[in-house]
Specification:
- This protein has 213 residues and is of the alpha/beta class.
- The protein has a single domain, classed as Rossmann fold.
- The protein has six helices and nine strands; from the N terminus they run βββαβββαβαβααβα.
- The strands form three sheets. The protein has a five-stranded parallel sheet, sandwiched between helices. The chain has a two-stranded antiparallel sheet with strand order 1-2. It has a two-stranded antiparallel sheet with strand order 5-6.
Amino acid sequence: MTGVVGGHRVPVLAVAGGTASGKSTLADALVRHHPDSVDLVRLDDFYVPAHDPLRGVRTVSATGAEILDWNHPGSIDESAVAEAVDRAVVSGRHRLVVVEGLFALTLPAVTARATWRVYVDTPDDIRLARKILRKIEVQRQDPALSLRNYLMTGRERHAAHVAPSRAVADLVVDGTADEYAMITAVTMLIGPVLAAPVRAEPVLDASRFGETA
């Protein structure tokens, strides 16, 4: 589904990458630098309820508890994602819709709607270090638990469901670069979408009137 803003088709930019690769940093930077032009859909908001035994994919944590597998695309409510993206596209309030998440280049509901596909690539050791630091600083989680979960399922899930999506990307961005370098790379891919002003009137096709641009 495609919306129109001032005669322009509203495109969708899908941004994927492994955990702690920098994909959220890139998406947030695009919104911060273009607050009136970019709408953001985060796949993290569309996991099925963690305690619903009938939906999603289950796994066993290093603690021994059965939990929702946050690293599996089957734990995302894909129908809800599709509805959210379509709603953002047709709202008419923005020039670009960004869909960000682990599986932004894996879920058919996103890839079918994506105008451009970006993969944020960061070495596994850096991603793991970032993740552990985040778990310690934000969740006060024992780093040993993070490491065990990574060895039990996280590494395998990334290799199976996230890393292969790099091959379908239109652009691979260095996740160790700063946000300005990443934004610059994306801007070169999408062109003047964010720089162009929103037009209030429809764009007329000059060729219909025997004129040339």
